[in-house]
Amino acid sequence: GAGVSQSPSNKVTEKGKDVELRCDPISGHTALYWYRQSLGQGLEFLIYFQGNSAPDKSGLPSDRFSAERTGGSVSTLTIQRTQQEDSAVYLCASSLAKRTGELFFGEGSRLTVL
Amino acid sequence: GQNIDQPTEMTATEGAIVQINCTYQTSGFNGLFWYQQHAGEAPTFLSYNVLDGLEEKGRFSSFLSRSKGYSYLLLKELQMKDSASYLCAVIPAGNKLTFGGGTRVLVKP
């Protein structure tokens, strides 16, 4: 497709389970971001991939969170041993290398941890 | 660390003008961006400033003063569909786009 695609759009899980969220960026976009947004709040930075450079993981809230980007394209955000405070919308965005602030966002994955 | 401040909420009347201020304190500066986010939707890019001055795009304008660490987004001829959150974001040194908490704008008839 032409836009950023995220899956699943909704995920309900039990506390302690692992979840994987997937992001398929726009073709040709070398920059990829993951953000988290709780209800009524701003965007909390999680992780940033830029081309072949080492990712900026400074926003990951704990070692239960990890992300990878395979082949410079699809990215997966993994949350292990989920907690209720992990409940949020997880947004993925991509951009061209030369326009790294002009992000194109996916529709997000809404995670609910019971 | 990075600090980006904007008001939490603003209310304005249809047809009027609203100015949303954003102040920032960051380590380095590589550009300031404004995004619009309607409730339940993903943010969408509105504007970009890297040099001082005013950038105009239709009913929306964005201003930047780098020496003051200050920007504003000006929305003219407000329409009901402009009710949304407006997010100020900065790229500091390191090329990582960092967002403020957003300003929720409510347009009333």
Rg of chain B (C-alpha, Å): 13 Å
Q: Give the overall pLDDT of chain B as a whole number.
A: 94
Assign a percent range to the helix content of chain B.
under 10%
Terminal residue distance of chain A: 33 Å
Reading the helices and strands of chain A in chain order gives: EEEEEEEEEE
Question: Of all protein chain pairs, which has the greatest interface, and how many residues does each chain bring to it?
Answer: A-B, 20 and 22 residues
Q: List how many beta strands of chain A DSSP finds.
A: 10
Q: What order do the SSEs of chain B take from the amino end to the carboxyl end, as H and E? A: EEEEEEEEEEE
How far apart the termini of chain B lie comes to 40 Å
Molecular shape of chain B = globular
Helix content of chain A: under 10%
Strand percent estimate of chain A: over 45%
Largest sheet of chain A: 6 strands, mixed
Structural class of chain A: mainly beta
Morphology of chain A: globular
Say how many strands of chain B there are. Answer: 11
- Secondary structural class of chain B: mainly beta
Task: Outline the biggest β-sheet of chain B.
Answer: 6 strands, mixed
Low-confidence stretches of chain A: none
Key traits:
heterodimer, A: 114 residues, mainly beta, 6-stranded mixed β-sheet, 4-stranded antiparallel β-sheet, 10 strands, B: 109 residues, 5-stranded antiparallel β-sheet, globular
Structural overview:
Chain A has strands at 5-7, 10-13, 19-24, 31-37, 44-50, 65-69, 75-79, 88-95, 104-105, 109-113. Chain A has 114 residues and is mainly beta. In chain A, strands 2, 4, 5, 8, 9 and 10 form a 6-stranded mixed β-sheet that branches. A 4-stranded antiparallel β-sheet of chain A has the order 1-3-7-6, with no helix packed on it. Chain A is globular. The mean pLDDT of chain A is 93. With 109 residues, chain B is mainly β. Chain B is 0% helix and 55% strand. Chain B contains no helices and 11 strands. In chain B, strands 2, 4, 5, 9, 10 and 11 form a 6-stranded mixed β-sheet that branches. In chain B, β7 and β8 form a beta hairpin. Chain B starts with a strand and ends with a strand. The A-B interface holds A 33, 35, 41-43, 45, 48, 50, 56, 58, 91, 100-108 and B 30-31, 33, 35, 41-45, 48, 87, 89, 91, 94-102.
